[in-house]
Amino acid sequence: MKIAVLGAGSWGTTLAVLLAEKGFSVDLWAHRKEFALELDRFRKNFRYLPGVLFPDTLHITGDISSAVEDAGMIITAVPSQALRETLSLLRASSLEETIIVNVAKGIELDTGRRLSEVVLDVLPAILPEKVAVLYGPSHAEEVSERQPTTVVAASSSLETAKKVQDVFHTSAFRVYVNTDIVGVEVAGSVKNIIAIAAGISDGLGFGDNAKAAIITRGLAEMSRLVVGLGGDPMTVSGLSGIGDLVVTCLSRHSRNRYVGEQIGKGRSLDDVVTHMKMVAEGVPTTKAVVALSKKLGVDMPITVAVYEMLFEGKPAEKAILDLMTREPKKELEE
Ligand SMILES: NC(=O)C1=CN([C@@H]2O[C@H](COP(=O)(O)OP(=O)(O)OC[C@H]3O[C@@H](n4cnc5c(N)ncnc54)[C@H](O)[C@@H]3O)[C@@H](O)[C@H]2O)C=CC1
Ligand SMILES: O=C(CO)COP(=O)(O)O
Description:
Blueprint: E1 2-6, H1 10-21, E2 25-29, H2 33-42, E3 44-45, E4 49-53, E5 58-61, H3 64-68, E6 73-76, H4 83-87, E7 99-102, H5 115-122, E8 131-135, H6 140-143, E9 149-154, H7 158-168, E10 173-178, H8 181-203, H9 208-228, H10 239-250, H11 255-264, H12 269-274, H13 282-296, H14 301-311, H15 316-324
Parallel strand pairs: 1-2, 1-6, 2-5, 6-7, 7-8, 9-10
Antiparallel strand pairs: 3-4, 8-9
1,3-dihydroxyacetonephosphate (13P) binds next to helix 8, helix 10 and helix 11.
């Protein structure tokens, strides 16, 4: 089977190499033509994944139509806010039999939609059962070194989720399946916001107690949003929930934790983001989730605090004090 990977950042490149090394014929599409030429010339992604050589079965292209032509599976690995624009370059009618697997994490800012909903919006000829996501604790830097990693393939169709599992599974990249695509997507998106909060705590010089509090109470607000959007609360105890939350809040590789750390040290969001070459999805997702939670009446105090620090200039010390001095609560909700 031919597979198209759309997006040649660190994650798209890592997955394209993994699949090509498994023997699939893979087309990796980069949205800038000059970048596609550079990748093909050096057979390496110097910008996003310098240590990894491309196998011969990996083809690089700057032409999205040729990338998806005859592909049995399309992996979308562009930043969440560029997904709609990227998919709109495709002709929906030729993709009815294709499985689309989104690996970007986030919620669309303008619509509040999950990314699998964006896929169905832009490509109405595709059935919901043909859409999947692949989420979980998986930093590209470690996956590309074949370090043990576990992820979850989620689709409303178990058959589709199992196909994605078959395609990606290796002895170092273990793929589980889940049919709760709502829960997996919401959990995998909210974890980036909580990771910014964890980074802020690091930047302020707080220790392990504060980090554990952010992870645990972050999980509580993640669960409330999952339930509010119709997902299964059990999903948050899985790889896309607690799994990805732990890795992103603790990892030195995490871009979201890094953004938070810099904010905690007193830098402005603009300054941090303009000096980063990689995407931090928690930033737009914070805006999208605050709007969603207000609409649904879901209480998400850490997320709101991150919003106030990122977009309203609230000093981090004041935000933490406000969180700590909220009215006392029961730990578990009815
Ligand atoms: N890097 C990682 O370890 C992981 C990343 N992800 C997710 O994968 C998605 C992609 O992330 P990375 O590969 O890390 O990004 P990256 O920051 O390494 O690279 C971003 C890529 O998106 C491209 N891009 C930027 N604007 C674009 C546009 N308007 N249209 C098309 N492409 C555009 C850039 O050229 C670049 O190739 C994100 O949603 C991220 O959360 C998920 C799991 C692991
Ligand atoms: O989703 C990820 C790991 O599972 C990547 O997280 P960062 O974008 O914060 O690096």
